Each structure stands twice: as structure tokens, then as C-alpha cells.
Give the backbone structure.
Amino acid sequence: MTVHRTIELIAPSGYPHDQEAVHRALKRLHAAGHTIGGADATQRRYQRFAGTDGERAAELNRLADPSRDLPDIVLAVRGGYGAVRILHGLDYEGLQARLRDQPVALVGHSDFTAIQLALLARAGLTTFGGPMLVSNFGDHTVSDFTMHHFWSALTQPQITVSGTIPQAREVDVTGTLWGGNLAVLAALIGTPYMPPVEGGILFLEDVNEQPFRIERMIYQLHLAGILERQQALVLGEFSGGKPYEYDNGYDLQAMIEQVRAVVGIPVITGLQFGHVPDMVTLPVGADAHLVAGAHGFTLTASGYPHLG
């Protein structure tokens, strides 16, 4: 039996340029029996953003209002750019008081990483790296894989994701699961919005970035001392980056081998997370256990609020 959920839409970054995708997504969610709030977030525009900085911050801060009923799911409309502009305007104390340990799932990826890491750093809130309204729910064909992992993560007290690519070394570690979009995460280094995670399991993804740019940002994490404080680095999908002739054999795999040689912690590959149709959903800030080796890897997460 399908459980009907209340879903609140937020647009903390760019506006959706594909209104047909918005229509498809809303139609599907309504047809499934879910109650949708905040649909006006899909229509706001200010320059390249889904509203002014004040409007987009207020949209999130409304979740701290005790006079409003909390939704089951807070779903990002899309990524793009703009979340970093509102981090200073969020009511972290109020959001922590209202949302801590509550079964409310804040979900998104890409530029939404900035919101997720800020909420983890400043309010200790666990959110979910997962699908978004336009790119996933509004796709021409919705991925059964993505939807299965999405609803499993939001409704079960523990999730397990795995990959079959043989790994370079045997790994068995535990720690806080955190991460998201590499470019967004790297841009938060040295700010109060970078979570001070020690002994964590860090996962990364990105889109339309060349291997050398990915390497440069990972080096930034390495040289800043962030990677050496983690138990492992798990690489998701780096889609859309096409090699140059100038690269002369330097590709994504060569970049990964270079990273493995310098960062001093296990580097795991093959996580299905990122700007791809088939993606898993991961709780950012949860307890995690990672086992990897010649068989591939298994990543288990628990200890996060779930809808049940």
C-alpha cells in the first residue's frame, strides 16, 4: 500500500528553466497521492536565481516556525548556483530546535550540498543527498532504481548500497557519512559552513568537470588537511566531463590513481550517486560502515531520522 506524504518544495538555488519537467513531476507526485506545498517556488525568478536571496532564505527558515505543520519531505526543486548566497541568512538555531531528531527529510544534491553541509556544521542536522524535483521526478522516464533507493532511505532505519567494481585495497571502517558535490564542498573550505568531521566517510560527485579540475579540487581538500582526517574517500559519478586531446592519456582513471597515491586514505570508486538518472540516496550526517575489497564495496548507514 502506498503511503501518502506531505512534500514541501524549496528552491534555494537556480530557477527551473524546463517548466514541462516541473509539470511532469507535480503530476506524478499528485497522482501518487502526495500533498504538495510550496509549488510557487517553481515559478519565482530573480536574475538566474529562484527568487531573491531573502526569499530563498525565508523559504527554508519557515521550517523553524512552530506555528506551521512540518512536512514529511522537503524537496529541492533543482540545483544550479545560489545556495551559498543565503547561508548567512539561515536561522540555524531555530532550524535545529524544530528539526533535530524529527522525521523530516530534506532532500537534494548538486548545489543543495551547500545547504546540507551548513545545516550539518551549524545545526547538527542530518539531511539526504538524493533526487530533486526537476531532474529526477520530472525526467521523461523516472528511474525505478532511483525511486527505490529514495523511498528506502527515507522510510527505513538503515540502508545499504553497494558496488561491484574491485577496489585497490581491503577496507573496513566506520564514521560519519558526509559529502556531496565536490565543487560546492571545496568552496566551503575555511568557512563556518564546512562541517568539522573527524574520522568520517566522505563521498563526492560532480558534473561537467574535466579530470584535472576534479583533481585540483581534491588536492585542495588534501592540502587543507581535510582528507587526512577521514577514514575513506568514496567517489561517485563524475559525469559530463569530456577529455581534451591535450590530456595525452590523462583521464578520470589516471586522476584517481594519482589521488590514491597522495591522499593517504582509502579511495573507493563506483558509488552510484551524482548527476545521473540512476542514483542512490544517502543520509548526510549519519553513522556509516564501509567494507571494500576485491569484491567491490558495501556502505551501510544508520542512526538518522526516518519517516517509517
Q: What stands out?
A: The chain is about 30% helix and 25% strand. The first strand starts at residue 6 and ends at 10.
